[in-house]
Amino acid sequence: MPELPEVESLAEFLRDQAVGRSVAAVDVVAFQALKTVDPPVTSLAGLTVTGVARHGKFLDLDCDGIHFITHLARGGWLRWRDDLSGAKPVRPGKGPLAVRVRLAPDDDGREPGFELTEAGTQKRLAVYVVRDPAEVPGIAGLGPDPLAPEFTAEVLKGILSGNRTQIKGLLRDQKVIAGIGNAYSDEVLHAAKMSPFKIAASLTDEAVADLHEAMVGTLRAALERSRGMAAKDLKSEKRSGLRVHGRTGLQCEVCGDTIREVSFADSSLQYCPTCQTGGKPLADRRLSRLLK
After folding, report:
1. Exposed / middle / buried, residue 146 (Cβ in 10 Å: 0-12, 13-18, 19+)
2. pLDDT value, residue 237
3. What pLDDT score does 54 carry?
4. Which end of the chain is more exposed for a tag (fewer CB within 10 A), N or C?
């Protein structure tokens, strides 16, 4: 799933490639992906892309005041195409293509644009066409952005205070902190040397400061690694930079211990016992506690 660093990098890429161009057409192939009806998606034709923003894990193209917003969900991605003039029409329900955005042709006749695709059988990619980003429910309810200057250790302390949620789940909750998903929550907790099942309210002031430093540092480092990359290269860059997530059974790059996994019904987490849990493995079941 694209998370804050990848979505911000996509936003930067589109600022360079799309801002200043007018929209030729938006072709919706997966009709279930379009979540709004007013303004109609056809109203984007002829408008100019004036800005690109990120709200948590939402990507926002401002087209003369009408916003084309997408959430790529677990299996979605954005694929830039230098020339869509020869792209074949795609029938709904065939293949991974969900939406195709065509931009006005260049002087050489090429028609640039991008496609939103979604792999897998669970189709959760979402597209909204709205006049105000706050009209999107997921954006209206977002917590603070961890890379915003005002997101200080004191702000994080206030969020954690009195919260009996396990820290792994809290970091993934978009209503609490925006932009962090399953992968980077694993990475942040590894960098902070913290168990994923630590109760948020139990953190000392020192642990909160360490968590804040790990959160900001991990996200900024991932963003710097991907900055300037083409959209097609961001997925592989994310994988190459991960230290624990998706690395079950491999050696921890910090201490050499074996990275372990806890599996849930629809997801899993990875962690290093030596770095995060005092050398003790976590029981591989929901709401696990340290094995005695």
Report:
1. buried
2. 77
3. 98
4. C
Alpha-carbon dihedral 116, 122, 128, 133, rounded to 10 degrees: -100
The CATH classification of domain 153-276, taken from the options 1.10.238.10, 1.10.4160.10, 1.10.8.50, 2.40.10.120: 1.10.8.50
Per-residue pLDDT at 274: 98
pLDDT of residue 172: 96
Amino acid at 225: R
CA distance 290 to 292: 6
The ranges of the chain with pLDDT < 70 are: 93, 285-292
Please name the amino acid found at residue 186.
Answer: D
User: CB of 277 within 8 A of CB of 195?
Assistant: yes
- For residue 289, what pLDDT is reported? 46
> Alpha-carbon torsion 164, 170, 174, 177, what sign?
positive
Instruction: Please give the structure tokens belonging to residue 241.
Output: 């930079």
Q: Which two tokens stand for residue 48?
A: 């100019």
User: Is the CATH number 2.70.20.10 carried by domain 4-140?
Assistant: no
Domains 4-140 and 153-276 share a fold: no
User: pLDDT at position 290, please?
Assistant: 45
HEC readout, 50-93 = EEEEEECCEEEEEECCEEEEEECCCCEEEEEECCCCCCCCCCCC
Main-chain phi, psi angles of 200, to 5 degrees? -55, -45
Sequence spans of domains, the chain: 4-140, 153-276
